[in-house]
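Much of the work behind modern protein science is quiet bookkeeping, done one molecule at a time. The protein below has been through that process, and both of its lines are reproduced in full.


***
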Amino acid sequence: MSEKEPNNLLAPLSTDAQTHQLPKLSILRGKSAFERLFKASNTFRSGSILFRYCIVPINEHTFTPKNSLQIAFIAPKRLGNAVIRNRTKRLFKESFRTSNTDLHHFLKKNSIYLHLALIARYPSPNFEYVKNHMRIGLNNLIENLAHDIDTLQHLEEYKEVQQSPKSRI
């Protein structure tokens, strides 16, 4: 009886995609990251979820090769007491965790580093409602990012044409 029994309640920590865990590296942290997110970001709504996102320029200090997405789950105080806010954030985390594969594939394919905040607009009634709106919102996010990438590519091409020397005939 002197030996300690392993606790079966503790799950192994892993960033493996097969375990479908949300790694700690993917949580948005830091005052400067939140300032950037709320200052220069795009927003849209899907049901009770407000999506706020911004594409972050890749440099040596912010980019980690394993993680191209950092996310924040926000439930403002106007939602209700701490129990309601925490339940809402748990619903958001679980629905995002189960629905984010397409977004991760898109970000890796296009080499995009993204900051994303999921903000609760009002308390969510149940998990199926949140999961449905999360899927719709993530699909809209992918479409918006694809549009932003196309716009940036066209702007870069336009700048190159403007900077090239004009030849006279």
User: Anything to note?
Assistant: Residues 24-158 form a domain with the Ribosomal Protein S5; domain 2 fold (CATH 3.30.230.10). DSSP finds four helices and four strands in the chain. The chain has one domain: 24-158.
